[in-house]
Structure formats: C-alpha cells, structure tokens
Amino acid sequence: MPAVRKAMVERIGPDEFTSSRRRQGCDFAILSGMPDKKELLSQPIEHIDIKRHDVRALVEAMRSMAYSSRDLARAAAIYERMLRDQDCGVILCLAGSLISAGLKQVFVDLVRNNMVDAIVSTGANIVDQDFFEALGFRHYIAGDEYKSGMQDGVLRELMIDRIYDTFIDEEELRICDETTRTVADSLPTRPHSSREFIRAMGAYLEQQGKTPAKGGADSIVLAAYQKDVPIFCPAFSDCSAGFGLVAHQHARQGKPTVSIDSVKDFYELTQLKIANPTTGLLMIGGGVPKNFAQDIVVAADVLGTDAPMHKYAIQITVADVRDGALSSSTLKEASSWGKVDTAYEQMVYSEATLALPLVAGYAYHQRAHADRKERRWARLLEQVTA
Amino acid sequence: MPAVRKAMVERIGPDEFTSSRRRQGCDFAILSGMPDKKELLSQPIEHIDIKRHDVRALVEAMRSMAYSSRDLARAAAIYERMLRDQDCGVILCLAGSLISAGLKQVFVDLVRNNMVDAIVSTGANIVDQDFFEALGFRHYIAGDEYKSGMQDGVLRELMIDRIYDTFIDEEELRICDETTRTVADSLPTRPHSSREFIRAMGAYLEQQGKTPAKGGADSIVLAAYQKDVPIFCPAFSDCSAGFGLVAHQHARQGKPTVSIDSVKDFYELTQLKIANPTTGLLMIGGGVPKNFAQDIVVAADVLGTDAPMHKYAIQITVADVRDGALSSSTLKEASSWGKVDTAYEQMVYSEATLALPLVAGYAYHQRAHADRKERRWARLLEQVTA
Amino acid sequence: MPAVRKAMVERIGPDEFTSSRRRQGCDFAILSGMPDKKELLSQPIEHIDIKRHDVRALVEAMRSMAYSSRDLARAAAIYERMLRDQDCGVILCLAGSLISAGLKQVFVDLVRNNMVDAIVSTGANIVDQDFFEALGFRHYIAGDEYKSGMQDGVLRELMIDRIYDTFIDEEELRICDETTRTVADSLPTRPHSSREFIRAMGAYLEQQGKTPAKGGADSIVLAAYQKDVPIFCPAFSDCSAGFGLVAHQHARQGKPTVSIDSVKDFYELTQLKIANPTTGLLMIGGGVPKNFAQDIVVAADVLGTDAPMHKYAIQITVADVRDGALSSSTLKEASSWGKVDTAYEQMVYSEATLALPLVAGYAYHQRAHADRKERRWARLLEQVTA
Amino acid sequence: MPAVRKAMVERIGPDEFTSSRRRQGCDFAILSGMPDKKELLSQPIEHIDIKRHDVRALVEAMRSMAYSSRDLARAAAIYERMLRDQDCGVILCLAGSLISAGLKQVFVDLVRNNMVDAIVSTGANIVDQDFFEALGFRHYIAGDEYKSGMQDGVLRELMIDRIYDTFIDEEELRICDETTRTVADSLPTRPHSSREFIRAMGAYLEQQGKTPAKGGADSIVLAAYQKDVPIFCPAFSDCSAGFGLVAHQHARQGKPTVSIDSVKDFYELTQLKIANPTTGLLMIGGGVPKNFAQDIVVAADVLGTDAPMHKYAIQITVADVRDGALSSSTLKEASSWGKVDTAYEQMVYSEATLALPLVAGYAYHQRAHADRKERRWARLLEQVTA
Predict the structure, then answer these.
(1) Cα(A240)–Cα(D218) distance, rounded to whole angstroms?
(2) Do D52 and B62 touch (CB under 8 A)?
(3) Portion of chain A with pLDDT greater than 90, in percent
C-alpha cells in the first residue's frame, strides 16, 4: 500500500519529520500564545447516557407549553407510539455531526434496546466519528475562543481538525482511513452496498476485540452488527471510508476492485419496506439520509408493491424551511409526495444535542420498547442478497 | 419492464383508471373549493437570465455596505478573480432545490461560457429537475396558500408534488424515472460512476433531439455533455435516477447489472484535482456536494500527491453555523481540515435565488471568463477510465 | 370613559350585538368545519414548575457535549456563579412572548426565591400576558393546524388572537386594557416611570385580592410588588397598558394626565447600577430590554460614575447574529461597547421554552440562591424618586 | 453640564489624558499586531443610492422564480400598489442597525420622494446612526477578522464600538449624546412625544447648517423635518438620546424637566390612523416599531373609531417565525389580531441590505410615487398637540 503509506509517512511519521513538523506548529503556537496539541486535546467529549436521566416529568410538563417545548413533547409521544405499534419498523436517519457532539451512546442504546431497526446516515457519523471512537480514539472539547475560526491556520499546523466547538486529531483520523482500507482489501471484489461494507466494519471490530467486553468503547457499528441492524450510508464515499476505498481502487489499477453500489443500498432498504410495510422515521437533521429513507415508499411502488407511506415521522432540525432545501422540507410537504403520512408527524426545531436526549430518553423511560420484538433486518438482507 | 410498467399503469394510465383517480382528486378539490390540476399547474417557473441583467453597479455599491450585501460583493469579486486565474479549475457545488426555483439558466450559462469546469450536485437538481425539464416538462408556481402544507393531502390526490412554493406533476416525474431506466438498460453491466451515467443522459438528450437547436429546452445535462463538463452526484440513488436504476436491477434478478460506484466518483474527481492542482469552489448550499468536493484535497494526499488546498471558495447558504452540520460549517473551519485556503473565501448567508443572480451576473458582465480556456475535463476522465 | 366603553360595547356587549357577532363567527366556523370559540379555548397553557424537576444531572452531562447543550450547561454554571457572588445584582431581561408560552412560573419562582433583583421586559410579557393571567384569564393551546395562518380570518371573526401556536380570547384582553386604564385613572397626573406604573398594577392586584392567598393565580407583577423587585418596560405603550393609557389621555383632553416617561425608567435603572456596581444579566430574547439593560453601564458613566461593565451575562435566543440586529448581537460585541465583560458571558442559541427551564432549574436545585440576600431595589427607588 | 462634561473629559480629553489612554490602546494594538485607530477607521460605509440602479427587470424576473426572490418581487409589487393607492398613508418601520449598514440614503430618498408618510423606528437608527452622521460623523467597514469578536477587548481600549462588521468611533458617539442633551436643554420642560423631540433635532440640524445645501450630509432626521414626516421612536431612551436626556434630568435635580411620554407617541400615531384610515406598512425588521405601528388599529378602536386594518403590509426580516417573538410573527398572524389585512401582505425572509434596495428601487423606478401627494402629517400633529 505505497500510496497511502506515503501519505501517512508524510503526515504522521517518520519520527523526525513529524516532530519537526510538530515543532513548527508548536513554535507558531507559542508565538501566538496558544497551548500545544496535547493540551488542546485534553478534555474529551463524553456521551450522554439517557438511561440515567428520567426526563418523563419534564417532557410531560412541556406538553402544555408552547413553541419547541410542545413540539418536542409531541415528538416524544409519537416516538413512544411508534415503538408500541408492534407492526412498525423504525428507521433512524442521521445527518450533521452527532457522534462527535456526544450523542453516540444515545444511538447505541436505541440499537441495543430494540428501539430502532435500521439506520440511514451520513458517512461521517458512522465512519469518521463512531467507527473512529470504536478504534479507541476520542473527540475533544474546543475552547470557546476557537469557534471563531481565527486560529484555524494554527490548528492546521498542529494537524487538529475542528467541527465548530470540537477537536479531532487528524493523525488518528488517518489511521481510521487506513483501517477502512484494510476492510476493503479483505472483501470480495464486487459491488457492495454500503450496508455490506459497514457490516464488515462491525465484524472487524469484533475480530479485533474492539468491544466493551474486551475493554473497548461501545459503538453504533458494533451494536448494529451484533443486533443485526442494517446501517446504510447512501453517500458512502463522502467520509473516511471514501479515502480508504479510493486508496484500495488506486492500488488495484486495472484489476477488479471492491465498489460501493448506491443502487444496491436503495434496493435493499426498499426490500425492507416491502417486507415490513408499517414504518416510522426518527430523523436527526435532514439531507441525503432523510430523503433516501423517505424515497423508499415511492421505490416500493416502482417495484410494483403498493407500500403505505411512512406512518410515523419525527424530525429534529435547525434547518430553515423557507429555502426549499430537503434538509428542511416539512413532513407535511413530504406528504404531497406520498412519502409521509400526516397523522403522526412532528418537526422539532432545535439543535439535536438539546432535543434528542429528551425525546429518546422519554421513550426509553416509558419502557415503550419493553414488548418490542427484535427485527434483525440484516439477516433478511443476507438472504436477499446472497 | 413489468414492475415499473405496473407502477406506471397504476399511476398514469390506462385512461379509465387514471381518469377515475383524477376525478376522485377533482371531486375532493371541488368539495374544498380547490382548483383542478390543470389550473394548479398553469403558471410555469421561468428561469432568470443573468445575461440580461447587468448588475455590476449594484454589486459594487454593496461592497461598501454591511452584512450580507458586503459579503455578496466580496464573493462576486472572488468569483471574478477565480475566473481570471488561468490556472484555476472551477468546481460548482449544488444542494437544495435550485433548478425548480428558476436558477437553471444561470448554471447553463456558466457551463456554456466556460465559467465552470466540473459540477458536484445532489441528484434531485440534475435528474428530477434539470433532466426532467430537458424532457419537456416544467415546474409550476404554487399559490401562497399552499406553502402552509394544509392542502398537501389534496395535492397528493391530484398527484401534484410540492417543493415549498413550487408544484411538480408527479405523472411527468414518473416518466422521468422511466427514462433513467431506459438509459440504465442501454449501458454495459459494470460499475459506473454517476458521472458516466449522467454523461449517458446527456447523450440520450442529444440522440432524442431534446436540444435547443431542435426546439427543446436547454439543460445543464445537455450543456455539460456538449462542453465536456463532468457532473458528479455522490448520492446518485437519492433521486429520480435511483428509481430507474432500482427498477433496472430488480428486473435483472441474478443477472449482471449496471451499478453506480460512488468510490469511482470520488476517484475521478480526485484525479481532476491532481491533474489541475489550482482549484476554486462555487458552492450553493452545503451537504454532500460541498463535503465531497472539499474532500478531494485530502484524497489526493492519500493517493500520494501533495495537492494544495482549494485556493478560492464561495458558499451561498442559509444554514445555521451553530449546529455543527456540514451544510453550514464555515470555510474557515474547512481550513483547519486542510481543505480550503482562507485567503480567498467568503460565506454569503442568503437564500440562493436572491444572491446567485448577483454573484454570477457580476462575474459574467465583468467578462471575467473572456480569456478563459475550456478545460473539457470529461475527456480527461474518458482516458483515465477507458 | 365613553370612548373605551364604546369600544368595549362594540366588542364584547351588549349581549345581543355580541351574540349576533358571535353567531356570525360560528356560522362561518361551521361552514368551514371549524370548532366554536369555546372548543378552541378549552386547553389552557400550563406553566412549567422548575421546582419539581431536578435537572442538575442532565445539565451536567451536557457540559461535556457540544453545540447548544454545552453552551446551555455553561450558561447554567454562570447563572449559579452570578447568584453565589454576594455583590452581584441580577437583572432579568425578557423579550418575545414568554409568559403565554408557559414560562410564567419560572419567573415568579426567580422573584420569590431572590434569584433576580430587577426585571426589564417588553410590555406584552408583563401586561398582556402576566397581568392578564393575574386577572384570572388564561392562554390556550392552538392546534397544529392553526400555525399556518390559513384560518386567521376565521379566528378574527371569533375574536381569538393567535401567537404562533397559542390562543388568547380578545374579549378578555379588552378587559385587561380596561383595567390598566383604571390603574392610570387612579394615579397622580405627572410623568411616571413604567416601573412606578407597574408597581401600581401590583398594588391593584393585592387590593383586589388577585393573589394566590385568595385563590387567584400567582404572577410576576404581584410577586415583584411583594418582593420590591422593580419591573421596567422601556417601550411601555407597546402593550395592553398602552391602550388603557391612550384612553386615559384621550378622555382628559386638555387636562393634566398621567404620562409615562421613558427617560425616568432609564434614570432609575442607572441609579440601581450606581448603587450596586456589580451586576449580571439573564436575558431571554434580545430587543429593547437587552439593549436598555446593557446601556446603563454607559449611562452611569455619562452621569460621572465609573461603573464597571456587567460582570456576568447570559442570553438565550434564536436570533441570527449575522444581520447586525440588537436582538442577536453577541455578548462579545457588547464588550467592544464597554457594556458586558467577557469573562463570564454565554449565548445559548435555543428557543427559550427548551433552554430556560434547564438553566434556571439547574441554578435553583443547586441552591445557588440559598444565602443570597434580598435587595428590595424598589425601596431604593422610592427614596430616589420621592 | 458638569456630569456629562466630566464624562466627556474622562473619555475624549483633556489632550494629555486622552493621548495617554490612546497610547495605551495603541501599544496594546501594536503588541498584538493590530492597526491603530486611524487605520481601523479609514474605510467609510457608503450608502447605496437606489436612484442609480434601475432594478425593475431584475425584480420582474424574480417574480416567476421561487422562495425569497418570488416573495421579494411580490413585496415590490405591493409597495408599488400601496403608493399608487391615493388614499393610502405609508408608515415605514425600522428595526436593526440599518443606517450604519449603508441604507440611510434609501430612507432619505423615500422621504424626499413622498414614498413614506411617517416613520416608526428604534432610537439607534434615528439618533445614534442617522443624526450621528448628520453631525458629520461616519460609520466604518470592519475587516472580516473582527466579526468573530476575538479582538473586542482591544477595540474597547481604542474606544471603537463594533456592530457586527462595522466600526463606530465612540468618541464621536459621545459628541452625539452630548448634542441630544443640548437639544433637550432647549425644550420646554413638559412631557414630549419622541416625535416632538426628533422634530427638534431636525430643526437643530437646519439651524446649525448641517444640511446638504451647506455641504453637510443629508439625513433622515433633516429630510423628515423638511418634509413634515413625523418620526416616532417608541423606546426613545434606548439610544444616544437616552444618554443626553438622562444627563438633562440628572442636572435638573428637583426642577421640572423635559420628559418623553411614550403614551403621547402612541396617541399621536393613532390620531394619524384615524385621520387617514387607509394605511400600509413597509417594515424592515420587527420588534417594537412593528408592533407599535400595528397596534394603532386597535388603539383607534379603543378611542371609539372603527379604523380598518392596515390594508398593505410588507416585512423584510431574517427573524425565525417559530419562537413566537414579535419580530418574526407573520403578517397572517397579525390578521388574527385585527391589525393587518391579508389581501396584500408579504414577508420577505432576507437580510435587509440585500432585499430593500430591490424592493424600494423597484417602486422608485416604476415612478409609483409620481402622482402621490405629500401628506405632511407633522403639521396635522402640531395642530392636534398644540
């Protein structure tokens, strides 16, 4: 793997080069009074644990208030109802940097407690952030003074990547890229759905002992692997795995390669809709994941199956409704497209770190999932795609 | 094609069924005092023509004002500078429903006047909206009273899809889905980049005489085909083409199929960056297209080439910076990732239909592109991927 | 009081006219399938009680997350610190419709527990909403289908006023207008600060037995009266009291009247700053209240006193920073004006019904106010203005 | 005037003290590599001149697009219609820092061309910004690097105030404060409406030769004075005039003073509504000015006059509709309150520096005001209040 290795060497080794580069960064930092990389990456993001916070009384009090609090309480009640509907398969959609923001454990808990049956996500959440932490890395709190972007040049010198108020060690992220390439190299050279690839990432974690049982961090990728919850990333190249896969294809010039077939993703998720017609969506952010999951209703129709619209739909977003973007298009608008039913839909206009612990925590402490059966949809797809 | 045909029949024919369904919609509409489908789809969206509006004095006046007007004037100046830089390849990124909103001709003009060398877009803009119009269909103005979503149930009955304040005839959109399947069926059964598929769509338009020369509407897909401007849709299943491709794969159960390899997209765009190191980004909205185009700097590095950051970057968006989403992450933040240089970058916080005609119109009337050479990057990729 | 009475008659009586008007509204409502006024006003807004929700663990968990949750946790910690600083006088600023949204009890609790020493507010919160409820009236939950505004014409016929997702009976609001006139008529005919007028409103509530002790609802106006917490409304005509005061002045054509001197408000609040130099701001929304409270630092300077900047400042808002409006100007920006110190300042970008119960509830359950002394600033002003 | 003078001395003289203070600021600036005050205040804001930009074709093209461009075109058409309606009195409402942003000349042109009959504004626009410039001072362009607020401490040392991306010399602003005190000292000691006070400010400008005829800058205050267009600031203490008036009242301890009666403002504007029942609102931003102007419909009713709702209403704002704040409440919502008719109303969600030159410029170049008669409402009020 010369190409990537060369890049890695250029970036994180050999020791001499790296340390000279680091020194350059540090000198700059000293000049400008900035702390060094170690200090900047000292306060890790901690993931909120909804199991520890019984927010039911708080959420119920919000039901008789106004604006976002009432919307949030209604969304929580719809999520509870969705889980109590024994026919309903729940699809979780993730956009925006959610894992780096401290929401990983919420999603792990939803998977492990049968509160979600499939996930559609941006690649960044699943690979760059969740799988990255599964490998043993962390995200870090950035001081308020870095939000402005005025020090981003210095951060670049230090190889620290910034997501608004959060830091990532780019040297660690390069190891994550590299690991996805290892996974790619291990797969048969044919078109794969992103779902298949991510399942292989889960298997890798288990094989490498990157599990809570062996002292590792828990992760969405691992939990979903163990619980047979399929994860789809419809724009899979657009993340750390993209770098690994490009390196894989580049190295195999002319020879057959692993490819990621986004049509297969769409086909697979549509199969799930056809097999389990009653569905509900829990959407954080909008973008491609939202649209992709909504579109399977139409796709089922195209395949000749008269699938009903998504019966339940919740979206937590800060996106502005008035520019026509998909991220922000209302769930009512989706009903004109025949995608979402309007009986049980609720938009919550809030940044997700505030709203999601309340919505998910409410449903969890209501034990809405207590009698819910595991769907293990991944097994269904193994059969289909075998 | 029984599956899709069945769906099509169920939706748009045979006459009897359709008309009974239509009557049902109409009856409902009459009961609630709504106009019928024909009336609702009577006022087409007209695309603004920047060539007719010399906005230079206006934009220059904005340079000495504050807030968005000053940002916009600075963005226009950066776009001009980008075009005058003979080394610079310009990548246009499109997210949000822009074509349906009346911006199609702006992008066609950018392509035809050598003001853009590659396009990265959501599928909806390129297939559901641009290719859709190229087939002879239109988007329609929705009355203010439909924005609220209170009539979306009735619209569904009438098979009218709504994008905020704009209507689409879903029966026509189904024909667009079907056409993408025709294109898919005509291709060799191997992994394709979305770029290759969209190029085939352009060839289809030319073959079918869907060109201005033969009385058809001009389109981005056609102009890009003719000018060898590659178009990438990194989440290509997430649009009308996804429906056609799913139908294609479904019909070929067990046999080899066309697949859409998103890794290949990423690899191809990275090759362009390597071949033409100096680059600038003109981004409308954020999401996957923005991230995908920014990431090629890192991907080139992964492939062992020390490609410089994007030298110029403009983003027009209404997204909120404070939720950490990619759509809204500032260009300064991207510089911490080593993706965008900070010397010539400008965010413009405005809805695109207001800001883009001014930014693009300014550069056009400055004749910034007058001495700019065609890059015809698609040819470069034919060689690479042949 | 013929003018107002005439208006009142026209609006809420005599019985015959009203009922004919009501019938007209109802008929219209029946035609369009709408419920009648009584049904529309059947579900009252209930105010959240922070005393019942120990949110400390939740807020502490948010401290190590990102985006709004971390900002919120930091704001809560600053509010706690502000209360533990024995020298610090706390000024609460209110803009936006907060009382109608279910936050009244939060503010009442802050006043009754010595967690706030002065209030600067829009008139609507204090008069149209808080005093209105003190008179025995309520706000009501509006169904989701009314948010769009499509039924606002019918609501007007029914004399129901709407605030986004909340209803008010305009006939009751007219009684509130009328009551403010009664208060005005009882005062000496000279310039009053809004603070003096609102204090008279508090005295009126006590005299009329509109108190919890006598079975009435608790209110900010009453609690502030009893605890000698001054309330300022710098734009006092811009509310229900404005209607009462205009009627008062109109009826006294040519004779001396009560007037509301906004300069006196500014002078009084500045006196408090001079008497108690260490101050902190807890701001919900922005607008005039925020600006007014920030400006007293400069006003003290103008009066020759070298008052320090506000030492602590928290603002909860959804306003967009990028249009230069005062509602949204950052607290850092205020520091360039010498108004707010930057050591302990935090913006929380969230709708207030979600964020305030967490921020205020955290400080309350931390018992940050336990050893805090009452300031009873209203007494200080009685001396000054006597 | 010892108090203010003391403050002034402390701030801008005597020379020795000032220069030592200045040096302190400069030293700090040098240390941190910042330019000095003179350099920071070298690029003045220039006001856009709508008379020079015929935007009609551009705005008309926007009519058949979507989102904000269509809304803007509709707003422009409504403003044109409002001006052509010979019965209609036009009330302009201003909130947010608009004058400092380069929009002063737009409003001056509206006044001088009979395109507006009354103005309701925040005090900052009228006093701190417009009157300030009338005195010969300017606003300055702040470099992009100051937007973040990271240098606000240094700016404070240099006595430079920041409004997002714009600088003000606080030493000059102090002179503006002082001038308002001079005006206050010249008035009879009785309650005044803000309208009367601002009229006196206009007279002061004319007396002092601060007019274009004598080489000075044109201003809203002067133009309104000359054209008898009344200007109301319902929260008048909340601006530079507040400082002057507080100093005035402070200096006159115990003696009669000028006071600013906000009830009188409300009464006067209501009288205009009664005298001229057909009205239209052109609102930039929301807040107190918007609410105040809308409320006069109800106030007229309270005074026994059955005044019609505002017939036309346009609002340009970036405020978010979903938090129930007045700044953002839709014009439809106002119709439930009986304040605004829904036949001709349009919200435009855009930052004002982009949208207003197009809306106002369109109406101007359509010559919609050509046959419009001057209303000279200030004269009407002189009679009423005499």
Answers:
(1) 58
(2) no
(3) 78
d(CA D250, CA D258): 11
Model confidence pLDDT, tens digit, residues D120-130: 999 999 999 99
In the block, tokens 């190191």 appear at B277
How close B129 gets to chain A, by Cα (Å)? 13
Kind and range of the H or E run holding B22:
helix B15-31
CA angle B331, B337, B338 (to 5 degrees): 90
On the question of pLDDT at B129 being above 50, the answer is: yes
Of all residues in chain A, the one with the smallest CA distance to D322 is A67
Strand order in the sheet with B231-232: B231-232, B118-121, B89-94, B279-284, B310-317, B340-349
Q: What is the pLDDT of residues D328-367, one digit of tens each?
A: 577 888 888 888 887 899 999 999 999 999 999 999 999 9
CA distance D313 to chain B (A): 15
Nearest CB to C64 within list A55, A141, A350: A141
Are the Cβ atoms of D150 and A145 closer than 8 angstroms?
yes
Q: Active-site residues of C: which are they?
A: 339
User: What 8-state DSSP symbol labels residue A323?
Assistant: G
Distance CA A70, CA A81 (A): 17
Chains contacting A (3+ CB pairs below 8 angstroms): B, C, D
Tell whether D164 is within 8 A of chain B (Cβ). Answer: yes
Whole-number mean pLDDT of chain A?
A: 89
Find the angle CA(B81)-CA(B86)-CA(B91) to the nearest 5 degrees. 70
Q: What is the mean pLDDT of residues A31-44?
A: 84
Kindly determine whether residue B161 and residue A100, on different chains, have CB atoms separated by under 8 Å. Answer: no
ipTM, two decimals, is 0.90
Chain D residues closer than 8 Å to A66 by CB: 324
Cβ distance B322 to C67 less than 8 Å, yes or no, reads yes
Q: How many helices (H) and strands (E) does chain D have?
A: 18, 11
Segment B133-170, tens digit of pLDDT: 999 999 999 998 898 888 898 999 999 999 999 999 99
Cα–Cα distance for residue pair C299/D174, rounded to 1 Å: 11
Is B160 in CB contact (< 8 Å) with chain A? yes
Question: Chain D partners of A322 at a C-beta cutoff of 8 Å?
Answer: 67-68, 349
C276 touches chain A (CB under 8 A): no
In this predicted model, what pLDDT tens digit does every residue of B217-248 receive, in sequence order?
999 999 999 999 999 999 999 899 999 999 99
Q: Contact A323/B100, CB-based, under 8 Å?
A: no
Question: Using 50, 70 and 90 to split pLDDT, how confident is the model at C3?
Answer: very low
Phi, psi of D311 (to 5 degrees): -80, -35
